[in-house]
Design a protein that fits this description.
CATH superfamily: Clp, N-terminal domain
CATH architecture: Orthogonal Bundle
Shape: globular
Helix content: 55-70%
Number of helices: 8
CATH class: Mainly Alpha
Number of strands: 2
Number of domains: 1
Distance between the termini: 25 Å
Length: 150
């Protein structure tokens, strides 16, 4: 029932994240690619939270580049490019976050919150290193959502 993805999320996970993975010359989609895709897409609440917290594309890319060299994860198949186990967990958590926030669709803010819950993933470590916590992101998501619905 909450598995309906917005067109923006579909674009992030099916188009932009795989493009970014290919830019890295990788044959899998990981959480880091989803995170970079949220920022690159740029119009969702997820991207707004990152920008409001001073997290730029350059800072994200720099941090991901440092971390990606350290860890290569096992893969599973998701669409055309395989996704990491963390990626699968993030999708399930994003659905749960949408449910908890009483949204009928999974949006970029739910993806961002899910990335912040996926401990040990490249995206989680990146955001942690850039000082963005789940609590702070959720607070900002709620603030932005309330201003966009008024």
């Amino acid at each position: 029932m909450y598995e309906r993805l917005t067109k923006r999320v579909e674009k992030v996970i099916k188009k932009i994240a795989p493009e970014i993975a290919r830019e890295y010359e990788l044959d899998y989609v990981g959480t880091e690619h989803v995170l970079l895709a949220i920022e690159r897409e740029g119009t969702g609440i997820g991207a707004q939270v990152l920008h409001n917290e001073g997290i730029t594309a350059a800072r994200l890319r720099e941090e991901v580049d440092k971390l990606i060299k350290k860890s290569m994860e096992e893969t599973w198949v998701f669409g055309r490019l395989p996704g990491t186990p963390h990626f699968r967990n993030v999708m399930a958590t994003a659905i749960e976050q949408a449910r908890l926030l009483e949204s009928k669709e999974v949006c970029t803010e739910h993806l961002l919150l899910a990335l912040l819950k996926e401990k040990g993933s490249v995206a989680w470590t990146t955001l942690r290193n850039l000082r963005l916590s789940f609590a702070r992101a959720r607070e900002e998501v709620l603030r932005l959502a309330s201003t966009s619905s008024t």
